[in-house]
């Protein structure tokens, strides 16, 4: 029978991935942010924003040759909360600004244009702070 | 000397702020970085109310995204597992096996589904065992 023991050639290494979190309040709604950021500035980003602790939407946006605007696709579709269009266009704008492939999960119970605008501003502000120049 | 003091106070305030956010944030996370078979491997686990999100990366990318969940058997006691590739290669059986092993383990103690982003350059059996063992040693679900 083959041994299931794990050989001991594991050692700690320098982390290349960091997770940044942030909590904010917009009017009466608590907003939670989370960012996965690799050390390589060309690596993709994962961004999660929600007013509840679920991960039930996911879209990806990236720049491709021949297309002027980043292309966006929905990987996990949710009929709940913020509209698909708002979420996908936000992912596109993040790609335009930060020039890397972006995975975005945004799940806000109510769609208020002012709140969506506020979230976008906050994401841009936090990413500018977290991504090394 | 004084600038050193200011810097140290600033770092401590930032640390306090970070730990306060971590304490109040509803999503618990853990990152582990290891050299596995001499390859830098970054693993991140975040536990949401409905999902365990696991990232395994050996090249600072997300590459393949897989969703997996457990369904309880109705007629038989045996549960069944559904593994779906959301993005990336659905030809690579090994990635599906990673997802299957992880959702089976998650399913033992939680009803959460799995979202896995996986980008591995070392597809050896030894590496597979070590990566899974590292995740199970650091599980927070």
UniProtKB/TrEMBL annotation, chain A:
Single biological process term from Gene Ontology: proteasome assembly
UniProt-recorded name of the protein: Proteasome assembly chaperone 4
Source organism of the structure: Dictyostelium purpureum (Slime mold)
UniProtKB/TrEMBL annotation, chain B:
Alphabetical list of InterPro entries matching this protein: Proteasome_assmbl_chp_3, Psm_Assembly_Chaperone
Top-level taxon: Eukaryota
Pfam families: PAC3
GO terms under biological process: proteasome assembly
Name of this protein: Uncharacterized protein
Species per Swiss-Prot/TrEMBL record: Dictyostelium purpureum
